[in-house]
Every structure is written in C-alpha cells, then in structure tokens.
Amino acid sequence: MPNKEETVKIREKAIEDVIKEIEKVEEFLKKGATELYVEVITPDIENSANNYLFADLGITIDYANDISDSELYENLFNQLGSLNLNRIKINNSMQFLRNINDPILYFLKEEDEYIFYRKSYLQEIVEKDGYKFEDLGEDKMFTISATLPTLERDEYGKVLIKKN
Questions:
Q1: What are the tens digits of pLDDT across the range 84-126?
Q2: Pairing relationship of beta strands 113-118 and 104-110 according to DSSP bridges
C-alpha cells in the first residue's frame, strides 16, 4: 500500500500522461480545422471570388456543436484510435475534452465521413489569411467574409469597378 508521498507521485505521473494525450487530441482537432479550411472553405472562397463579381465575399459554413449522438461520438473515437490513447477512453473523454466555450465541432464531409475540429482553431486559420470570421451562434453557422473589389452598374447600366 503506497504512502501519501508515493500516491502523489502516482497522481503526478497520471496527470503527465493525460496532458500528453490531451495535446495529441488537440493537435488532431487542429489538423481537422486545417482540413476543413483547405478542402471545403478554400474552394468556396475561390468560387465566390471568380463567380460572384457584384458582391463582397461571404461564405457560410453550417456546423453542429453537440457530439452527443452515440454513433457520431463513436466515429470521433474511431478517428482518435490512431493516437494510441491509454488514459482517455470513450467513457471518460468528456471530462478531459469538454470545453463549453470552445466545443468540439464537426462537419459532415461525405456520408459517414466527418471532420472534427474546434472553432478557435478554424477561426485562427481564417483570420490569419485576412478574412473576417463571425459565429452566427443560434443559426449554427460561421460566416467568412471579406471586402473585395466588385463590379457595379452606374445609373446608365454601364459596368464599373468598385474598389473599397
């Protein structure tokens, strides 16, 4: 039976192990935000810049912030399986990973293929590239926007370039 000093050392080692695992999961979520930005958002930005010449850039991304559906939660943990987590298990994970102010979000890429990420990681990427990032909260949508040169028509119907 360990004495208090030995128990403190056991606890400190357990905490160290969990912190390393949390860092692995957070890195996974950062990669998810990058994947969402590169594979989903960037093509939408390029499409908007090329095809909607009479309007500023405005991309909306639907999101969900509730990983309570058991099948979805299992999907997240299946993806986390490659991280070799020993301390964080499906039955205790929310104790370690839940963050009310920055929840784990998901984007349905294709049928049964999800991208998991945190809002703050996506926001950081978007703002680093110079875009405005806005969370519409109750509508469960993000808006990514920017003021761009646009075309407009003058009073005679002539198309002009409008630079902001």
A1: 888 777 767 777 777 878 888 888 887 778 899 999 999 999 9
A2: antiparallel
Beta bridge partners of 64: 106
The Cβ-side half-sphere exposure at 137, using a 13 Å CA radius, reads 2
CA dist 117 and 35 (Å) reads 9
DSSP string, 43-63: HHHHHHHHH-TTS-EEEEEE-
Tokens of 108: 């349905």
Q: How far apart are the C-alpha atoms of 96 and 82, rounded to whole Å? A: 18
Q: Which of 89, 95, 110 is nearest to 35 (CA)?
A: 110
> Cα dist. 79→9, 72, 84, 134 in Å?
32, 11, 11, 28
The tokens describing 36, both together, are: 């969402």
Q: Is the pTM of this model over 0.70?
A: yes
Q: At a CB cut-off of 8 Å and minimum separation 6, what does 122 contact?
A: 33, 36, 37, 105, 133, 142
